[in-house]
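Repro case for the chain-ordering regression, as requested:
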Amino acid sequence: MDFALQQLVNGLTQGMVYALIALGYTMVYGIIELINFAHGEVFMVGSFAGLLAAGAMAAVPGIPAPVRFLVALLAAMGACGALGLVLERAAYRPLRRAPRLAPLITAIGASYFLQNAVMLTLGSQQHAYPEIAGERTFAIGGATISIVQVLIVVIATALMAALTLFIGRTRTGRAMRACAADREAAWLMGVNVDRIIATTFAVGSLLAGAGGVLYGMRYGTIDFFMGYLVGIKAFTAAVLGGIGNVPGAMLGGVLLGMIEAIVAGWGASQWKDVVAFGVLVAVLLVRPSGLLGEREADKV
Amino acid sequence: MSMGGGFRPSAASRRGLAAAAIAVLMAMPWLMSNDAALDILTIAGLYVTLALSLNVIVGYAGLLNLGHAAFYAVGAYTYALLASPRHGIHLSPWLLIPFSGATAGAAGFLLGLPVLRLRGDYLAIVTLGFGEIVRITLNNLTDLTNGPNGIANVDHPRLFGRDFGVDVAPYFWLVWTVAIATILAMRRLENSRVGRAWKAIREDELAASAQGINVTVMKLQAFALGAALAGVCGALYAAKQGHVAPESFTFMESVTMLAMVVLGGMGTVAGPVAGAVILAVLPFLLLGLETWRMLLYGAALVLMMLFRPQGLLGRRGGLAA
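-- result from build under test --
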């Protein structure tokens, strides 16, 4: 029972990180139907931005742990938000009217570029992630929960709540929803579509940045190639929940993390990716638009 | 394909030009003294066939496939398992090359059967998942496949009593013979009844089915044909390298093939051929830049796409949405 509870906690925290990244995929997809393959690399850059910020603060004595953590988190989110804007401007906006797969290829190119840029500047080795949040652990019902796991749940929940409010309650959020529903109609209603798309990229990217820091703290080491597998997983999570659907991405992320933890708990961790993708295929066969996705009618 | 207006060579002289180009290509092993360069051209030839096989699925039928490396892997492992000391089975390579195509084609058919009713990018993620499942399975089934270390000492083909061995030239001829045959076949297929049906589905599935095209059957055919061709390439790869391992069939491999198709111009024959040759040779041209190589490769991919969104040899319009 203790073991099961422990795996549940592990799965939940892993899933919340997936969910943060999946949100970026799903938001961009919802608005311009692009699979942003560079998003995994944005997450990776965020993780490194947090690492560098933490490294800079390590030189200064006397900063309390919560401040260190928050500064690293905000630095990563800021860096990623800016990176998202640059990517959108340089690699995707010029191709807005191009054939559908053209921006997919620039995304792949950007992905190679970012991976190698980080590798060239910071090296290809594993980087140890500093324990900026301290090492406290809590024992709850026989399971050991680290402060990092608590932070993941708190921060991810707060960010998702903030995002939900942003999309549901603000003027920009409403414009985003309008663009997702019908870009041309939104444009006719006076929505600055280019600005809204750029905002979507920025918001999705800063969530990935937060995910990067949380991931680094959870696993302890990061490297320039980390965005590849996590990116695929987060994208899978987004599709599992129903791509383009914000609550779906959260649900998909948590579900995927849980599935992986359960399979790993059975002692079959080398098969966890196979099971994760297997579940995805099975879900799509029963619900072709994902768990929370809406079924689209044929347009005649 | 019209290149601007003006001069258009007659059909006969174009055929003559093509024959001359093929003759020069096939003479390459004698013209080039550098084995390394010939090897790169051999790999480029392999990618020409791979890109054309993916083009059937993505370019003609309009089905986004992000796991094409899986079919390539199925072909390569079919060959390696049945012609190596791994399990002591040594079937004839000449039998195994088409047979590997058949197993990969069957894999494509079996995958397509349940998933082809998925729309657009949902299909893309399922193919991505399938690709990962195949790779990880090959990696984990250690008893069968020797896991991450792969299968070594794969049999080389023999012809007229001569073992292909580790020479480059025989593989160059073999690979490019398959590539040229594929190019010629694709040119016929493109405008055949089947090819036109695929393009109709790509442009508008509903309209195509209203025209009496059996959409599911046609999609399955595209999937199976593309997969089978990739399987043949896998067998050629295994025969040439003498060694196969799961790491050669990652998602990145699928993505590279897709980049070749889209960069060259999907839905054409010349496009994927050009894309394959450029992207296969480019990394070697950049080799002198060492660590900067992949950074520039990524930048080049972005710039080429921004420069010609429809692909280098693609046609404008038609492929919208």
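Ordering looks correct now. The mean pLDDT of chain A is 90.
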